[in-house]
Amino acid sequence: MIFTDLAKGVLEQNTSFDNHETVRRVLMGPNEDVVGLVAVHNSNLGPALGGCRFYPYTDEGLALTDVLRLSRGMTYKNAMAGLPLGGGKAVIIGNPKRDKNEALMEDMGEAVESFDGKYVTAEDSGTGEEDMVAMAKKTEHVTGLPPEFLRGKDFGELGGNPSPLTALGCYRGIRAAVHHRFGGDALMGLKVAVQGIGAVGLELCKLLRQDGVEIFITDVDETRLKAAKEEMGGGHIVAPDEIYEVEAEVFAPCAMGGILNDETIPKLKAHIVAGAANNQLLKSHHDIQLMDRNILYVPDYVINAGGVICVGYEYFRKSGHNPLDFDISRESMVAHVERIGQNVTDVLGYATAHHLGTGEAADRLAEEKFMGGRPLEVGQMPPGFGGKTLVQ
Ligand code: NAD
Fold first, then answer.
1. Which residues lie closer than 8 Å to 322 by C-beta, 6 or more apart?
2. The CATH number of the domain covering residues in 148-373
3. Is 256 helix (H, G, I), strand (E, B) or coil?
4. Which atom of ligand 1 has the smallest separation from the CA of 253?
5. Is 89 part of the annotated catalytic residue set?
6. Which of 53, 74, 77, 200 is the pocket-test mutation for ligand 1 (most atoms within 8 Å of CB)?
7. Lowest mean pLDDT: which of 78-82, 297-301, 315-319, 382-386?
8. Do domains 2-68+89-142 and 148-373 have the same CATH topology?
């Protein structure tokens, strides 16, 4: 394997470069011809946690842009989630269905290990639990492992599929946004339109229905859509391109990114946008376009942090990295996910008070938490958390 740290002069030519601490290019596989990139954006709050994506980028420049953008996003997400973790990400260029194999994932494990704990990896698009197990042969700095792998290693009830917890965080975030917008706490009788009824979307619908919410669902996969309606015991199915125009209080994007753009924002009838999908705003200024239409946008990385909290707790247990003295149990992890509601309230309140778009408000609050800090020693408090009041 060949490791090369990309020089700042090279990185500065990419507009997504944001003073990343390290970007390491790795040549993997038996012929050292599979390219991986690992980026640590910022580790002020602790080890940089972010998943490993396996994707058929058409050229390495696109892969570099993606890893820079995604690792930066993890810094903001982890900071807003109140985790003592920085932001990082890895990408492997290739078709996961054709090119992925155990030996290659072990190579990526070695690449992760080369960071000596400064980067911690997890699953992402194109990788799954079995790939984490392969990487774990070469490094301790991997999380998102299957429960059967963790069992017997004193992990309690940690580990496993994070999607239900991502859904729980979204549910709490929607409640907070409804309270901010309409006052009161009851969701009974409200309408929510959910785009994408996959692992997160379906769980979110189930939670909302328990509160008497009327659900509208769409998905490009019709079989999944019908099965979801049956499993929920109700809900209205709408066509994928009609979901934006549903007369609902809340639109919850739970499918893919870039769906808030010049074309869709004018169509929206909802008063609130709050859902799990990553990178919902096509361009950062689209939060202003939403504000101009009096639509309250809940920044995606604030509301969808349930998954990273889940894998974060697993890592804290595994590594002993626990500078904020969290109680590392499933119960406390769930409580931490539920505090996403408060994080949403804080962001929306800050945006209102400072007349900002909610996306920018979240960025500013996240930056307050991670900027100006120093790399954490074990047992040291990160800056920006205001003592231990925000954590258990
Ligand atoms: P998933 O693949 O299980 O579900 C996505 C669903 O969206 C699928 O059913 C798919 O058919 C549907 N879909 C795709 N394109 C669509 C379109 N144009 N219109 C309508 N439906 C469409 O994924 P997931 O795990 O439920 O994640 C959903 C989103 O939330 C993704 O953006 C993901 O990155 C993000 N997210 C997920 C987690 C997690 O814990 N799973 C955590 C954070 C963020």
1. 84, 316, 328
2. 3.40.50.720
3. coil
4. 29
5. yes
6. 200
7. 382-386
8. yes
